[in-house]
Model the fold of this input.
Amino acid sequence: MDAVLEALSAHPGEWAFLLLLACGMGLPPWSEELVLLACGWFVAQGDLSYLGAVGWAMAGILAGDSVMFGLGRLAGDRVHRWPLLRRSFRPAKRRRFNHYFLRYGTRVVFLARFLPGVRLVTYLVAGNLGMPWWKFLALDGLAALVTIPVAVWVGWKFAANLDEVAAWLHRFELPLAALAGALVLLVLQRLGRARRLRLDELRRRRRERDFGGPGEGRGDDAGRGGIG
Done:
């Protein structure tokens, strides 16, 4: 943790952006979570505002993720022959991942933000499979809006015990991330279901208005029969 703080000390916002950009490409020895906690520490020291720290972090993370997305788009199938992917993404696993990606594409991109072990592969495959960049950026940005403000806030409020917080997060990172992702996805699904129900109700009312409502057609037919 001390090494991250030292790296950010000269210009915390700008260096946070650069480190997170590099994190998105799998380059530095530090995780995104450590850099975000460090941003919170500099908020506590008065060197960054909270919104400034979140803004720099958001820009760095989205830039790094977009670079990997773009490499996946440009490299095509060759992306799977890169050494980084050959070690962690064998053919059988890749086929299975592609299947899930094609079936649950938007949810996979969103949830990858909460699962550090699959972020890089997800963003490469998203570009490889031709997902529109604006859609990728929207999903990744939405997930980042959930994680970044929380991580910076934790670093800010627990600045005096940052090493302990970092160790605790490292120990429980995957279960906490999976739980957070599942909760957010559940909320989004409920909101989507409520929206679909409202749209169905609006369509039903429009049909009733356009066609005179239920039962009116039968009443007209009965009246015409009586007149005849």
Notes: The CA atoms of residues 76 and 193 lie 35 Å apart.
